[in-house]
């Protein structure tokens, strides 16, 4: 039976091989969606646009950023708990990125881009009539993106917590700090080579 705990922490409920299958599917979807929208992951939680779109230009940085996160988190997990399993860390990273594919898809919604342009244009000409519908669309999409990000980060945190069994606040702070540094370093490294 599905409940809130299952939604926010599927790692405790589902078999690790099922989660791995879903995670691999999520990665394939991220690459396909990236090809369709001209975007790629320069790190977990960072989607960038591409000038020249090829499957390789989308797949390579996306796979590097996911792999980088997995390796760093696995090392951290082993430091915090020697019983941390590799598959649990892989599942944590891949499952947490699943819904970000929806954010990639919003890049193809032309009405969203048009609304954003009209809202920005209104700021330069405030005497023009207020674009209420465009503001509503922009705010709705921003809210949607924030909800997706919060849910994704919740999955990321709960997955790592389940994989490593961390409970001390110091470990949680270390996990957060390592995650932020890892994300920034990955973006910097990929921007130099891609």
Give an account of the 3D structure:
It is a multi-pass membrane protein. This is Yip1 domain-containing protein. It comes from Chryseobacterium oleae. Residues 6-185 form the Yip1 domain. The chain crosses the membrane at residues 18-38, 58-77, 89-106, 135-157, 169-190. The longest helix is centred in the last third of the chain and has 33 residues, at 132-164. The protein has helices at residues 4-8, 10-13, 16-37, 55-80, 86-97, 100-105, 110-124, 132-164, 169-193; strands spanning 39-43, 46-49. It is globular and about 60 Å long. Helix 3 (16-37) runs antiparallel to helix 4 (55-80), helix 4 runs antiparallel to helix 9 (169-193) and helix 7 packs across helix 8. 28% of the residues are buried. It has nine helices and two strands. The protein has a two-stranded antiparallel sheet. The model has no long low-confidence stretch (mean pLDDT 91). With 194 residues, it is mostly helical. The protein has one domain (11-193).
């Amino acid at each position: 039976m599905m409940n809130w705990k299952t939604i926010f922490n599927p790692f405790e409920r589902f078999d690790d091989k099922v989660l791995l299958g879903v995670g691999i599917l999520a990665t394939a979807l991220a690459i396909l969606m990236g090809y369709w929208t001209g975007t790629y992951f320069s790190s977990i939680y960072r989607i960038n646009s591409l000038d020249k779109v090829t499957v390789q230009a989308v797949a390579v940085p996306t796979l590097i950023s996911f792999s980088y996160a997995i390796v760093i988190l696995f090392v951290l997990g082993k430091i915090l708990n020697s019983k941390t399993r590799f598959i649990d860390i892989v599942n944590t990273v891949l499952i947490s990125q699943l819904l970000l594919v929806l954010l990639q898809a919003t890049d193809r919604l032309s009405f969203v881009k048009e609304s954003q342009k009209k809202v920005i244009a209104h700021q330069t000409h405030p005497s023009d009539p207020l674009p209420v519908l465009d503001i509503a669309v922009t705010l709705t999409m921003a809210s949607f993106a924030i909800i997706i990000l919060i849910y994704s980060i919740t999955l990321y945190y709960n997955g790592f917590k389940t994989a490593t069994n961390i409970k001390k606040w110091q470990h949680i702070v270390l996990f957060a700090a390592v995650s932020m540094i890892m994300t920034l370093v990955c973006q910097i490294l990929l921007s130099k080579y891609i």
